[in-house]
Design goal:
The protein is an all-alpha fold. The protein contains 4 helices and no strands.
Length: 103
């Protein structure tokens, strides 16, 4: 999708999700800028969202990720993200949600 990315990863129990995302953002930003794939300087937004799932839910999560264009034809990623936060009863402050191009 043009405004977000989904990654499905398995982490060791002693691995930090924050470290993984930091390294993925840094490495991919450097690569994209070196290749000059975008006009100007590319950088990721601050922050990220992470959700955990059990092994028994993997097929469902994979289908969800593969169907992004279909999902977002009906509602924006921001709308869907807020629904996920509310569904999983994650406390959040709207001031700290990702920014859209309109904000």
């Amino acid at each position: 999708m043009p405004d977000h990315l989904h990654m499905l990863v398995g982490l060791r129990p002693d691995a930090s999700l924050s470290d993984l995302i930091r390294d993925a953002k840094a490495g991919s930003s450097k690569f994209i800028n070196e290749k000059r794939w975008v006009t100007g300087r590319f950088s990721w937004q601050e922050g990220f969202g992470g959700f955990s799932y059990s092994r028994s839910q993997l097929c469902t999560v994979i289908r969800y990720i593969e169907s992004q264009q279909k999902h977002h034809a009906k509602k924006s990623f921001r709308e869907e993200y807020i629904q996920l936060l509310e569904r999983f009863t994650v406390d959040y402050d709207p001031r700290y949600l990702f920014k859209t191009g309109d904000e």
